[in-house]
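I had to read the description of the data format several times before I understood it. For illustration, here is how one protein appears when written out as sequence plus structure tokens:
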Amino acid sequence: MKLLALDTSSEGCSAALLVDGEISERFELAPRGHTRLLMPMVRELLVEKNLAPAELDVLAFACGPGSFTGVRIATGVVQGLAWGLDIPVVPVSSLEAVALGAIEALDAPEDTGIAVAFDARMGEVYWGCFAARAGLPAALAPEQVCPPEAVTLPAGAARWCGAGQGWHYRSTMPAEVSERIDTIDETLVLRAAWVARLAAIAYEQGKTVPAEQAQPVYIRDEVTWKKLPGR
């Protein structure tokens, strides 16, 4: 399998190439450099493995939630490549990918809960709860956006860890949530290598979409996009 994964959904910009089980990655913290950095990263990875784009089997991207502009950048690039190469796409939840990173970084035992929080701005967090199952994240509840005061921990885990920069809101979260968290890693920034690992599993399970169905996930349904006057 030859899989290219992209992420621009946070301040990190990254691309990862998975070839026959081996992952190569480019990653840079560049909140305003995604457009400039992403395609050079892709080209570097392909040259490094002596691959032509036409040899790729599948594309993947972190589809959100996350930075609205960032998610749209990766979506546009993936759609364009998928159309041109006529290959399928695997959209991967940004929250789920960070949960995978947390399982690895924290060496989380089986059935440990991973509560991922991203800062959604406007006084809210993107919130996803997962359990470590065979080294992978399993969703315990639907992902949501809500004020930090409204987050909850679902059943399904005996102990909990937190991940993501949205945990800087911990002091405003309910006591029954914050007091159950043993360890928190606010430093984890999404990486395309995690996206690639989850996408490879989804691809083997046939969970792909065509280019036109590779869409961003915002969760915050009330946000609408409007053209500026004169555009």
Remarks:
- The domain at 95-185 is CATH 3.30.420.40 (Nucleotidyltransferase; domain 5).
- Residues 222-231 have pLDDT under 50 and may be disordered.
- The chain has five helices and eleven strands.
